[in-house]
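ingest -> validate -> predict -> emit
validate: passed (alphabet ok, no gaps, 157 aa)
predict: started
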Amino acid sequence: MTAMVERLDGYGRGGWIAAMVLGFVLFWPVGLAILFYMIWSGRMGCNYNSTWGGNSEARWQRKMDKMQMKMERWNEMRHSLWGGNGGGQSFAPTGNRAFDEYRTETIRRLEDEAREFKDFLERLRLAKDKAEFDQFMADRRNAPPERTEEDRSPKQG
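emit:
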């Protein structure tokens, strides 16, 4: 049962709704049971998103990756529409030189901040991984040595 719930969680809310509809089509009490389970577990509410599909850190990372992909697609579209030159001003000029310079500088600054934030997140992940590994090694060093079969058997002398 747990494996099925985890699998449906992987498909998100759409997977749960599809299972519920299928349950109603095949045998209405099954669909009703799935609907009650979705309401009881919070999968139908908006607040369930804080734990949807695992821990909130993994969810945050998925959202950041999704946003990064959208930004990359937007940049590709922007460069293809306005003939971006790979750096500097890539929007069509407005005719107001002061605004164009301000826009170029603001975009460059935001791109720099995004790059710095991405680097910060990477350093944060690395530090967390290192701390977890160090904790594992410390626990392993401090654990009592495992006894072998020879140690467990009484010595006959």
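The first helix runs from residue 2 to 11.
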